Amino acid sequence: MNPADVAQSALPVTADLSIFSLFLQAHWVVKLVMIGLLACSIWVWAIAIDKLLLFARTKRAMDRFEQAFWSGQSLEELYRALSARPTHSMAALFVAAMREWKRSFEGQSRSFAGLQTRIDKVMDVTITREIDRLERRLLVLATVGSAGPFVGLFGTVWGIMNSFQSIAASKNTSLAVVAPGIAEALFATAIGLVAAIPATIFYNKFVAEVNKQAHRLEGFADEFSAILSRQIDERGT
Predict the structure, then answer these.
(1) pLDDT < 50: residue spans in the chain
(2) What are the residue ranges spanned by the domains of the chain?
């Protein structure tokens, strides 16, 4: 901190301790920390809202798909309806398996050897790809949740150091002089917690949701693989 900053901080203290005033009176380093944490907080909420809508939309789409799949509708009709643009994870899994199935049966060789293995492999790859899509940007929540309080603490430490230098420059240790500087410094930690707490809560919630949907996809993949396996056996005999 340069002497000019300290001297400016040693100016007569105002009694205004509003949030806006605390921000304006803070050192520029603390201001940068606060602005960064506020930006992270907005980013966290934007990701959270997007993920909440995504998981709700995906769950509804999976429910509708499973209802259609187990209704007795022809797999060919279902494939034709979804193959152009599968809009959710389970449809993508179904289309990938059916595409491999049709490729083997409609090809010149009509080879059944290894078809079951190829279908299982295709579904495993599709599940991995869909899980990666659902987990996208969760790393941001984890990072803000773990690092946010420490970034806020850095702003607080810097603010307290600046406050002590201001107190030393003013040669006045009364509470009226000390309190505003400490309040400014602690404000940075408060903003860090405001960013980190929702990030941690949403991260844990979304990880649980991803695991739930992954188990659902794996369950459907096992059931669909068993159906195709029976059909391979029937056509191979």
Answers:
(1) 3-4, 6-13
(2) 25-236
